[in-house]
Amino acid sequence: MFDSQFYHKLIQELNTYNAALVAVSKKKPVSDIQLALDAGQQIFGENYVQELCAKQPEITDSIEWHFIGHLQRNKVKNIAPFIHTVQTIDNMNLLAELDKAASRNNRIINVLLQVYIATEETKFGFDREEVVRLFEEDVMSSFKNIRVAGLMGMASNTNDTTQVRNEFNGLFKLFRDIKPELNKNIRPVLSMGMTSDYKIALDEGSTMIRIGSALFGSR
Ligand SMILES: *Cc1c(COP(=O)(O)O)cnc(C)c1O
């Protein structure tokens, strides 16, 4: 169930940080998404291509879909016709595939580069040095149907808030360094913070948080 009371409180809090909210609706029904849309939410995040492609045609309101799961190259074509932002670019072959699919659909797709900041082997992403090198070598400018809007990261799943803060702070510093190289036509995005750690993320400079369970209940 969509928690509209929490939603409105969260939006007020985000306004003071000038940060955006991705409502993470994975494993939740379209009826929950509709309640959030009716409350004024526009940006929604999904993790699974099949689930997203089933929900997308069910919704007639204007909506901004962000893909936040691990994306396989052979599934890119399924989301390319409608996806607004892919937050989880973790290799250049994936970016090339997305650029090709965006071009075929006559679209521009925004992307975030996912950066590995946690200590868990199960997470994906570039390391910091790779990100710096990609911008130095201007690798992304050859992709004409892609706009690089910023960075995304997930902190370690731990109760150690000092560690979480340090991981977010490291990502913020990288973001600050590469910001001048980002697409000038869009607001730079630093996507970090989930239900368990979004307050720390906002303190450390997040411009976009991704909230699922606090909005829609546990999965
Ligand atoms: C599921 C998910 C979220 C939301 O997680 P909650 O803890 O439910 O807020 C955010 N980001 C990513 C990448 C996710 O996979």
What would you note in describing this structure?
This protein has helices at 4-17, 30-38, 49-55, 76-79, 92-104, 128-136, 161-178, 198-203, 213-216; strands spanning 20-24, 43-46, 64-67, 85-89, 109-116, 146-154, 189-191, 208-211. The chain is α/β, with parallel strands linked by helices and 219 residues long. 38% of the residues lie in helices and 19% in strands. The chain has 9 helices and 8 strands. Helix 6 packs parallel to helix 7 (161-178). The structure holds pyridoxal-5'-phosphate (PLP). Pyridoxal-5'-phosphate (PLP) binds at residues 24, 26, 47, 68, 154, 194-196, 210-214.
Strand element count: 8
Largest β sheet strand count, sense and barrel closure: 8 strands, parallel
Distance between the termini: 11 Å
> In percent, how much strand structure appears in the residues?
15-25%
Q: Uncertain segments of ≥5 residues (pLDDT<50)?
A: none
Q: Which small-molecule ligands are present, each listed once? A: pyridoxal-5'-phosphate
**SS summary, helix count:** 9
Q: Would you tell me the overall average pLDDT?
A: 96
Radius of gyration: 17 Å
Percent in helix: 25-40%
Structural class estimated from helices and strands: alpha/beta
Order of helices and strands: HEHEHEHEHEHEHEHEH
Strand order of the largest sheet: 7-6-5-4-3-2-1-8
- Which shape, going by the Cα principal axes? globular
Key features of this structure:
219 residues, alpha/beta, 8 strands, globular
